[in-house]
Amino acid sequence: GDFFVESPIILLAAIIWYLKIYEDGKYCTFPHAIELLNKKYSDVFTILTSYPDLENYLSPFMDAWQGGAQDQLQGQIASAKIPLSRMISPQLYWVMTGDDFTLDINNPKEPKILCVGNNPDRQNIYSAALGLYNSRIVKLINKKGQLKSSVIIDELPTIYFRGLDNLIATARSNKVAVCLGFQDFSQLTRDYGDKESKVIQNTVGNIFSGQVVGETAKSLSERFGKVLQKRQSMTINRNDKSTSISTQLDSLIPASKISTLTQGMFVGSVSDNFDERIEQKIFHAEIVVDNEKVAAETKAYQQIPQILSFVNEQGEDRMKQEIEANYRQIKSDILHIVESEIERIKNDPDLQHLVQQG
């Protein structure tokens, strides 16, 4: 890959691996990794290279540092710092620290429903955090012996879901259903790239679509296939009248029809199983909504239980103060780690030379 793309990945990987090693992973969180990355690089490199497991990670950076290539080194480090600096916020740090629950949502011993949402005003910031969780969830749930589960994503292009194409292709055997919602195929191509977008489009088994236009309508029309239709033409002149009948392959659902669907009308196709055959796989129909049942269901909704409260015994909401305190604690943790590790290295005869390099 590109030098200034791979370098920050390697550096961040080394920092995360270090935090996993240090005190059995007590501080191994993404916010701690960001804070450590933003410390003086001479201290960071000194600490990381004191661990034999991490020496190879740091090799490209150490070569630049020891060789006096400061501009190259600053560029490598900045390539890691700049994108991650957008994620520095007390609120995000609060969410991404702690040990509230595990992400194996279909674990038979601890099943759970995980609901996360993006913020349109901070989409670029939160998309990175959501993408991190999503990619981890994909690996954890796509295993044998777990409960049936479903991954439901609305407005898919607003977040990057690494490994989604592979999840769709392989997770069915592990009882994982994937449901994706988005406005148009062009959105998917723009944000996921042409290759990955095509794989996602072609591997889904069931598709439901309302009104779409352009290339998306054409693509759906091609997906639904063609049907042999009879055509009758009549020719009339002064002397006689003639009729001819011919057959021609026409689109089952033309793109023009898909682009003019009214509200409530849908087209689509469904897949079946070996022992559950579906004769009519392609449909063009109106989805009838029973408003009375919807109203009854809505009325029966129960309040989501409050898991965490920031209100103290005096009735004061301490959310802002606790989030700020957590933010300061993370910074304090990293400061303590750096100071104690540098002191450890200085007092170790076998490692003292590393400090002298800084």
UniProtKB/TrEMBL annotation:
<keyword id="KW-1133">Transmembrane helix</keyword>
<dbReference type="GO" id="GO:0005886">
    <property type="term" value="C:plasma membrane"/>
</dbReference>
<dbReference type="Pfam" id="PF12696">
    <property type="entry name" value="TraG-D_C"/>
</dbReference>
<protein>
    <submittedName>
        <fullName>Conjugal transfer protein TraG</fullName>
    </submittedName>
</protein>
<dbReference type="InterPro" id="IPR027417">
    <property type="entry name" value="P-loop_NTPase"/>
</dbReference>
<keyword id="KW-1003">Cell membrane</keyword>
<keyword id="KW-0472">Membrane</keyword>
<dbReference type="InterPro" id="IPR032689">
    <property type="entry name" value="TraG-D_C"/>
</dbReference>
<dbReference type="InterPro" id="IPR051539">
    <property type="entry name" value="T4SS-coupling_protein"/>
</dbReference>
<keyword id="KW-0812">Transmembrane</keyword>
<feature type="domain" description="TraD/TraG TraM recognition site">
    <location>
        <begin position="151"/>
        <end position="262"/>
    </location>
</feature>
